[in-house]
Amino acid sequence: MTSKKQTNPVGRSFALGGGQKIVVILLGVALLVIFVSSLTYRMNHPGNKVEFQQQKESSSSGMSQEAMGESMKEIRKLMDLMRDNPEDMKVQLELANAFMMIRAYDRAQTFFEKVVENEHANINALMGLGMCYYQAEKFDKAAEAFDKILLVDPDDSMAHFNTGIIKKYYLHKHEEAEEHFKKIIENPKSSEDMRSHAEEELKKEAHED
Predict the structure, then answer these.
(1) C-alpha–C-alpha distance, residues 110 and 79, integer Å
(2) Do the Cβ atoms of 162 and 196 come closer than 8 Å?
(3) Strongest mean pLDDT among 3-12, 73-82, 155-164
(4) Which candidate, 9, 44, 7, places its Cα nearest to that of 169?
(5) CA 187 to CA 27: how far, in whole Å?
(6) What's the whole-number mean pLDDT along residues 142-159?
(7) What is the rounded distance in angstroms from the CA atom of residue 187 to the CA atom of residue 55?
(8) Is 145 left (phi over 0), alpha (psi -120 to 50) or beta?
(9) What is the per-residue pLDDT across 13-29, written as a single tens digit (0 to 9) for each?
(10) Tens digits of residue pLDDT in 135-145
(11) What is the pLDDT of residue 111?
């Protein structure tokens, strides 16, 4: 499977400040890069632990010590806010995204789960939760999270693609996977890049080990 970078991910709306919105947008790009490159590595190296190779042009790749320090500073700030407002889902979501940025997927998962528990239709939290489950190799749960997004927004191309990939290569539900890719192609709202990825997947056969 060839690694592809999605340059036009589906937009996500967060109630964040200007600087934080930029971080979230970059996170959205990085997540799909991680997702596709991780899948490629897993398909080519079955049984081996994935080592992420993010695209150099992604602003979140190769995080420097300075950037890591800033991220940890932001996490500490958010943790203080959470202690004062434990039921503030905005803070919980920001914490989840902050942990995703430093690839602390288990910590991120905890906060995404808290948000989803309180806001069942929160697409941003469901997308992040699906990514965390994928990293933990909980593929059934990952597909379930992406499928829940489609109950909220049936036209979400990123959710269709992610759940299609998992169902094709990991759950071996090939007919369901094909339906997801077809819906991306048929959807006039899908970006050209996403449509191209879906068309490529329809041409490929999944080889079961």
Answers:
(1) 13
(2) no
(3) 155-164
(4) 44
(5) 25
(6) 96
(7) 28
(8) alpha
(9) 333 334 444 444 444 44
(10) 999 999 999 99
(11) 95
**What whole-number distance in Å separates Cα of residue 63 and Cα of residue 71?**
10
| 58: its two tokens | 């992604």
Contact of 139 with 171, CB cutoff 8 Å: yes
Burial 21-36, CB ≥16 within 10 A → b, else e: eebbeebbbbbbbbbb
- DSSP conformational letter for 171: S
- Which token pair is 154? 């049936």
- Strand, coil or helix: what is 34? helix
Residues 6 or more apart in contact with residue 22 via CB below 8 angstroms = none
d(Cα 46, Cα 62) in Å, to the nearest integer?
Answer: 25
- pLDDT over 70 at 126, yes or no: yes
Q: What is the mean pLDDT of the chain?
A: 76
Q: Over the range 47-80, which residues count as b (16 or more CB within 10 Å of their CB) and which as e?
A: eeeeeeebbeebebeebeeeeeeebeebbeebee
The encoded tokens of residue 19 equal 């600087």
DSSP letters for 188-209: TTS-HHHHHHHHHHHHSPP---
DSSP tag of 2:
-
Tokens of 62: 């190769």
